[in-house]
Design goal:
The structure holds two protein chains of two kinds. Chain A is built from eight helices and 21 strands. Chain A is α+β, with helices and mostly antiparallel strands. In chain A, strand 17 and strand 18 form a beta hairpin. The longest helix of chain A is centred in the middle third of the chain and has 17 residues. By secondary structure, chain B is mostly helical. Chain B contains twelve helices and no strands. In chain B, helix 2 runs antiparallel to helix 9, helix 3 packs across helix 6 and helix 7 runs antiparallel to helix 8. Classes of the chains: A alpha+beta, B mainly alpha. At the A-B interface, strand 7 of A face helix 7 and helix 8 of B.
Chain lengths: ~350, ~250
């Protein structure tokens, strides 16, 4: 269990964060919020790179920071791995020596992972003898991930590790994080402002706004809550867990979401595979009667569960459907003219192309 | 070291037998002594230079500016003043001088004193070069090393030091060149004793004081130029080896 309770004042931001993250079973917990919300500062405090004004941080049974007793364990003794946004490889060492840098340093236990196994997991075999300078961005980040793992951390912090990469590199690296999550049993606190990354990787989410943790819960719970919407980027929306049913000849994939049909642009998944999709709230239209003669293929019937005003003239509407909760972002004007309120039946309509796989 | 080492005459006979009559003993002495003084000054002050540069580049503490000023003082003070202050401190009547004498180290009017004067005069240049290269080392790399389990000392020796090596070499060469050329503080502190404290600049000065000494001075000028060029080449080669030697393997 990582427990954090800290207070730190920057000239333009005050961080007041209190949360705890279970370390068993190991999973990825996302620290999710806009840039400038204080995400990096919080994990820097956990890593020991930032000394908070006030607070206590402990990991399992070890006190890392306690401002009351002026305890502040140096980063080298925290046994916490850190994957930075930029790879930070040591330019004067080969890839192999970078990877081995943290093995057996200080008082750390040697890593339970075999060097060779990690090299293979991350596909670094052919890079070992090369200097870091002529690796691609994705390769560098893979080395950085391997280096952190091999230092035998009890917790890994990742600070937007994919943010500096282009889209292609990002989708090349995401599977490595999934493997890490599924195979290595190291808990990870993953900082991100990317809805897609968080939806795909995280099992739990901490939402941070202006230095404060405003929500905490499982990923699906947080994503499907109307409260979350205002703090989120515009592509935010509810997550639905589905199963691939068929690929049709018009280039669409038919999904089954707990008995409801959904059509999405073709996904390269086998029939029967499970797939988590995201329906951006701003792409959902609400109708009170079943729409006919409409181009949108996805129509889910349900009941309005709750409405949450967003403060910018829009309202987040949570609709319970058989497929799960769907979020819609509509204007206040529409709410009034349709008379939307909790309990009434309605239809949530989404274009096929708006739905994204996570 | 009043006696000239036996190898120096062999050196000059073997390599330059036909020019033996050109180089007189005082000239040879001056060249050998200059190299000896400058090398000693550089090698012995380098660890202090690295430590001072690191402290100035990476630490924040009250009095840091004072240390900075102190280190740079020899650069801005008249060398004669520096030499006089050295005489006051390390001379036979000086506090540190007496203490060093009691443990068997004589500085005043000895070649060791010349090395001290050269080291003090070269120190600001050395620290400056090393400090700049240390400040250029990305602190984020040091942070990364710390999160991998390296304590401060390990971070220094595995990251900061190797990455600033080109600057350390440059600082060393710069200090060596400055030490070869040091005149004012040296002549004030340890005088101009042939075979003991008469370095190349002091010897050139002496030769220029006597009628007809000009040609002898010119030879020393050539020697000084040759040493400077050799030092520059050495620094190039060392710098090139230091980058690239660590990677691969």
């Amino acid at each position: 269990m990582l427990s954090v309770n800290l207070h730190h004042t920057f000239p333009n931001l005050t961080i007041e964060a209190r949360f705890s993250v279970p370390t068993q079973p190991a999973g990825i917990t996302a620290l999710f919020g806009r840039s400038g919300a204080g995400k990096t500062s919080i994990i820097n405090a956990v890593a020991g790179l930032l000394k908070p004004d006030l607070g206590e941080i402990s990991l399992n049974d070890t006190v890392l920071t306690n401002s009351a007793t002026d305890e502040h364990l140096p980063p080298s003794r925290r046994q916490i791995g850190y994957i930075f946004q930029e790879p930070r490889l040591f330019p004067h060492l080969s890839v192999q020596r970078n990877l081995k840098y943290g093995i057996g340093l200080g008082e750390r236990q040697p890593s339970p992972f075999k060097f060779q196994a990690i090299v293979e997991l991350l596909g670094l075999q052919s890079l070992l003898r090369r200097p870091p300078e002529n690796l691609s961005g994705g390769e560098k980040q893979r080395v950085a991930i391997g280096r952190a793992i091999l230092s035998n951390p009890t917790l890994i912090l990742a600070d937007e590790p994919l943010a500096a990469l282009d889209e292609a590199r990002r989708s090349e690296l995401l599977p490595y994080f999934e493997q890490l999550r599924d195979e290595l049993n190291i808990p990870m606190l993953y900082v991100s402002h990317s809805v897609a990354e968080v939806a795909r990787l995280a099992s739990d989410i901490l939402v941070i706004e202006d230095g404060k943790i405003t929500q905490q819960g499982s990923t699906v719970e947080v994503f499907n809550s109307p409260r979350t919407l205002s703090a989120m980027p515009k592509e935010f929306g509810a997550l639905l867990d589905t199963v691939v049913v068929a690929h049709d000849e018009t280039g669409l994939t038919k999904l089954d979401a707990s008995g409801e049909e959904l059509y999405v642009p073709k996904v390269e998944r086998a029939i029967g595979a499970s797939l988590r999709v995201r329906i951006p709230a701003q792409d959902v239209v609400i109708a009170l009667s079943e729409p006919k003669d409409i181009s949108a293929l996805n129509v889910l019937s349900g009941k309005i569960r709750s409405l949450e005003e967003q403060g910018d003239g829009t309202v987040a509407v949570a609709i319970s459907t058989r497929a799960g909760d769907v979020l819609a972002k509509v204007t206040q004007k529409s709410v009034q003219s349709l008379g939307l309120c909790p309990g009434i039946s309605c239809f949530a309509i989404t274009k096929t192309v708006a739905i994204t796989q996570t | 070291m009043t006696q000239t080492p036996p190898w120096q005459s062999i050196f000059f006979c073997r390599w330059n037998p036909e020019r033996m009559e050109l180089f007189t003993q005082p000239q040879v002495d001056a060249v050998i002594l200059s190299l000896q003084v400058a090398l000693t000054a550089t090698v012995l002050s380098l660890p202090f230079g690295v430590a001072t540069a690191f402290v100035l580049a990476r630490w924040d503490f009250p009095g840091k500016q004072l240390l900075n000023v102190l280190v740079h003082l020899p650069l801005v003070m008249p060398p004669v003043v520096t030499g006089y202050l050295l005489l006051l401190t390390f001379g036979t009547q000086g506090v540190l001088g007496q203490w060093l004498q009691s443990i068997g180290i004589m500085l005043a009017f000895k070649w060791t004193g010349a090395a001290l004067a050269a080291a003090v005069m070269a120190f600001p240049l050395m620290v400056r070069a090393i400090r700049l290269s240390m400040e250029a080392v990305d602190m984020r790399l040091e942070q990364a090393a710390a999160t991998l389990g390296a304590n401060r000392i390990q971070v220094f020796f595995s990251i900061t030091l190797p990455l600033s090596l080109p600057g350390i070499i440059a600082g060393g060469i710069l200090a060596f060149a400055k030490a070869i050329g040091e005149f004012g503080a040296t002549i004030t502190f340890v005088a101009n004793i042939p075979g003991e404290t008469q370095t190349i600049p002091s010897a050139i000065y002496s030769f220029l004081q006597i009628p007809g000494g000009e040609s002898a001075a010119q030879l020393l000028v050539i020697a000084a130029v040759a040493i400077s060029i050799a030092a520059l080449f050495a620094s190039e080669i060392l710098a090139r080896r230091s980058t690239g030697a660590e990677t691969g393997g």
